[in-house]
Amino acid sequence: MAKKPASATKSKPKAKKPAPKKPAKKASAEKPAVKARKWDSATLLVLPGLVLVIVGEVAARVSPAWVPWLAPAGYVYGLAYPLLAVGTVWRLTSFRWLKSLGPLAVLLLTWPSFSHVFSVGLSKPDVALSENSFEVTTFNVRRLDEFEWLDGDQTRQDIATWLAEQPDGIWCFQEFPKRGKATLRSAGFSWLKPRRRLFTWPREAGPALASSYPVKDWTTYMFEDEDAGQGRVLQADVETPAGLVRVFNVHLQSLHFDHADYDAVEEGPSREQGARLWGLITDASKARALQAQELVRRMEESPYPVIVAGDFNDTPMSYAMHALRGSRAEDTFAAASFGPGGTHLGAIPGLRIDGILADTTLQCVSHHTHGVMMSDHRPVTAVLQAQK
Questions:
Q1: pLDDT tens string 107-154
Q2: For residue 48, how many C-alpha atoms fall within 13 Å in the half-sphere facing its CB?
Q3: Burial of 239 by CB count in 10 Å (0-12 exposed, 13-18 middle, 19+ buried)?
């Protein structure tokens, strides 16, 4: 029997199955890849803080008589700077370095301005009192509560007791009533031990000055510009242990808010109330700007070192206060301890509208805002002495 060839015995190779084709993507499903944007939550703090800080810096240097809408920026500067600071720190701790550079630069550049609003206590001088030191106190006594906004007789007794405890020096009062001397005497305060001379606004309530040092000359006046409002000044040349100084006891233009206006601030104003409040704020800011300009001129004309004390009715980051803190005078708040040093007991907490500016030839040893509540203002005291 014949054998089959070997080739015939081999099985035929199996054909390979073609690889399954991947289903084609539908054209409609094809979309270009878009990288999801990571939202920077710190921007919610940085952006408004940055805008308000910059606007506040501009408002302090541009007179509201020229640009009225800038004036209210000074009221929110104390909130805008911390807002920007918190947002910047948030970015830094989130390792967003590049986005932090701009806000950080603004914070550093504007720190001197914020130090007028909030003291961290770093500038407080470590100096000893000298023999030529003396105290200056300013206090808006709110007419000694003669209309009994607080506790009437008890308030007057508290003021009399508090004054009796204060060291000798120069006391600058605002809204001191016509019969204020007799009123305090009746409340138990002595003008004789030690002897204190009192100089008052003629015929009605206004600035008054009490001094245990000799007063060489004094006068009272309002501002000359017809658009400068109702501000008042009592000017006195006082012989202090540091030499003769010229004291300007000032009460700058008030907002003239009535009870309804204060209620609107606390509860939220309507559109009509908001328009009225805006008008009162901008009008008063214009007047204070003109008043500050005249005060600066009188300060520069003084042959003696100057002290400006009183109720400024304006914030440290206002045009008026920036003008007064010129080359001749400095804010004694630089020597304050930690905190905002708020003086007005109103709807906006921490608002500092009372203070003392001292000549650059005088050294401020300390600045203190008293924690008493005998008016709608807190008293402020600065200890001054001649520069060594």
A1: 999 999 999 999 988 777 777 788 999 999 999 999 999 999 999 999
A2: 10
A3: middle
Nearest Cα residue to 210 out of 199, 219, 225: 199
How many CB atoms sit inside 10 A of residue 334's CB? 17
Cα 129-344-110 angle, rounded to 5 deg:
70
Give the gyration radius of the chain's Cα atoms: 34
**Token pair 């030690």 in the structure block, residue:** 194
Instruction: Return d(Cα 151, Cα 132) in angstroms, integer.
Output: 39
User: Using CA atoms, how far apart are residues 225 and 31, in angstroms rounded to an integer?
Assistant: 71
Tens digits of residue pLDDT in 216-272: 999 999 998 888 888 999 999 999 999 999 999 999 999 888 778 877 877 888 888
Q: What's 356's DSSP letter?
A: E
Which class in CATH covers the domain with range 134-386? Answer: alpha beta
Q: Give the pair of three-digit tokens for residue 293.
A: 């300009």
Prediction pTM value? 0.87
